[in-house]
Write a structure and sequence with these properties.
The chain is an alpha+beta fold. It contains six helices and 16 strands. Strand 11 and strand 12 form a beta hairpin. Helix 4 packs across helix 5 and helix 4 crosses helix 6.
């Protein structure tokens, strides 16, 4: 097998020293990254993390990670054995030239020999998209963090929000193409019936996004659609996205579920994207003005 190297860039809402602390303090790692952590913050020291929230490292015996580079407020790297392959994760932290209170983190996860699993490249990409969302939420105050159980038999993204608008207004926001364009940011086409298309007309990874299909349609109560693999991999079964609307006081309780993932790591950055989009659905349904999306927002 050949080398696998995944590189990524994060923008984080804190100065380099704060970001470095989030990466090197065991109590902080347990808030956004792992169920358990034991660190010796020095070159060659232990950088052990494990538990249900750690991909491919559920037990302490498997947590053999060690620090391979250590430059306070500037850089850290550590080893991580995963799927019987040795790897190294590295972070280089710089001040954000466009934001005096922010940082830019350039990261890499490198395997001399790629793991012998299906879609290894996509696995690593999804893992670090998810971690970016969690460290961003952690540094930003904690709201919106989601620690996935990587051993879950049926992994899913589940959110519940209250919208100060009646179910009819919320449901219309989910099926009216003009309103979908407001909260999703791209044009849409909807054939409002079971079996009809629910289509976001956009390019993803240089390809036209396939149409979602409506699986369940109960006006003002429930909408469920298929969700094809966003990378266009036809070997990956469609997932499912569902909104259930329940009257609550003068408004609506919206219970949202995105399920059908083959493996928990495929959840990727969906929790943070769907949290953001569902908040925008609420804003549109309530008839309020939307804020512009942040430059670094990932869909």
């Amino acid at each position: 097998m050949s080398e696998l190297k995944h590189e990524f860039t994060w923008k984080l809402p804190a100065r380099p020293a704060r970001v470095f602390a989030a990466l090197t303090n065991a109590s902080e790692l347990k808030q956004w990254f792992a169920e358990y952590a034991e660190l010796e913050p020095q070159l060659g020291g232990a950088y052990r993390f494990w538990g249900k929230h750690t991909y491919a490292t559920p037990t302490r015996e498997q947590a053999t990670q060690r620090i391979t580079k250590f430059a306070p407020s500037q850089a850290i790297a550590f080893s991580w054995r995963m799927h019987d392959r040795d790897s190294e994760v590295s972070f280089v932290i710089d001040a954000d030239p466009e934001n005096a209170e922010g940082s830019i983190v350039k990261g890499a996860h490198t395997f001399a020999e790629a793991p012998a699993i299906n879609r290894a490249k996509e696995m690593i990409d999804d893992l670090w998209r998810f971690n970016w969302g969690n460290i961003s939420a952690h540094i930003g105050g904690g709201q919106g963090k989601m620690l996935v159980d990587y051993g879950a038999a049926k992994p899913e993204v589940a959110l519940s929000i209250y919208i100060d608008a009646p179910p009819s207004a919320v449901f219309r926001t989910l099926i009216d193409p003009e309103k979908i364009q407001q909260w999703f940011g791209v044009s849409a086409a909807v054939d409002p019936r079971v079996g009809g298309d629910w289509h976001l007309q956009m390019d993803v990874e240089g390809m036209k996004a396939p149409a979602c299909k409506i699986l369940d349609y109960v006006e003002d109560r429930r909408l469920s659609i298929t969700w094809p693999d966003w990378r266009g991999d036809k070997t990956v079964p469609d997932q499912r996205v569902t909104w259930v609307l329940t009257p609550e006081g003068g408004g609506t309780r919206v219970d949202f579920v995105h399920d059908g993932f083959i493996r928990a790591v495929d959840i990727s950055d969906y929790p943070f994207g769907w949290g953001w989009f569902n908040s925008r659905i609420g804003t549109v349904a309530e008839g309020k003005a939307l804020d512009a999306p942040p430059a670094e927002h990932q869909c």
